[in-house]
Design goal:
Elements (H helix, E strand, L loop, with lengths): L2 H25 L3 E2 L5 E2 L2 H10 L4 H32 L7 H22 L20 H20 L3 H25 L4 H24 L1
Antiparallel strand pairs: 1-2
Helix pairs in contact: 1-7, 3-4, 3-5, 3-6, 4-5, 4-7, 5-6, 5-7
């Protein structure tokens, strides 16, 4: 088996791990969450809920970091648009930009899927009432956008100092969002782990696609 096939196989295995974990969250140790909703891995989740009650500071911080991630998406979209206008052809847009666009579409598709296919609801009720919690959408957004940007900057930023700063900010923003989502108390710990597993599969697939272009 050649290297490319092995890499895609690893991506498939990571997705299988996510699917298996999702089944565990759905069917193992099912208890009750808010307003009588079902909650998988309830013993662990309730224990962590007591350790990490709702904290508005962390919630607000992760919301802003989420908006910043959307800003990163917009920046790469504008880069692609500039290339399209200058080159006057879709073929003049870098393949990396097309791959990134497809990556974003897949991330959005998973978000929509789990808004309809509810596994767990959040442990707190905010302005919009009961909301889907699994997988943590902010975890997926931050991990996928910031980590993909980390690698995209390697192509487009030639100044080594600026590159190091931007990559450092990407890592910091991703870590702060993921940790902050746990500390904020707006997700069950199982749902943050699920977000990390899904992100790992998506990011690995993105990197394989970039390498194979």
């Amino acid at each position: 088996m050649d290297t490319k096939k092995k890499n895609w196989l690893v991506t498939a295995v990571l997705f299988c791990v996510f699917v298996a974990y999702t089944a565990v969250v759905k069917f193992v140790d099912v208890g009750f969450g808010l307003e009588g909703t079902e909650l998988g891995l309830s013993t662990i989740n309730h224990a962590c809920e007591k350790m990490f009650p709702f904290k508005s500071f962390w919630y607000d911080l992760t919301e802003y970091l989420g908006y910043a991630a959307l800003g990163v998406c917009l920046a790469f979209a504008l880069l692609g648009l500039v290339q399209l206008i200058k080159g006057k052809s879709l073929k003049k847009v870098d393949k990396e930009i097309w791959i990134l666009a497809g990556f974003y579409v897949v991330v959005i598709a998973f978000y929509v899927l789990f808004e309809k296919l509810i596994i767990n609801y959040r442990p707190v009720i905010l302005d919009e009432g009961l909301e889907a919690s699994y997988p943590s959408s902010h975890t997926v957004l931050a991990a996928c956008v910031y980590i993909s940007a980390f690698f995209m900057f390697m192509k487009y930023v030639k100044n080594k100092t600026l590159l190091a700063c931007l990559q450092g900010l990407c890592v910091l923003a991703a870590v702060l969002t993921i940790v902050g989502r746990l500390f904020s108390g707006v997700h069950w710990v199982s749902d943050i782990v699920g977000g990390l597993l899904l992100s790992a599969a998506l990011i690995h697939g993105f990197l394989v696609a970039i390498k194979a272009k």
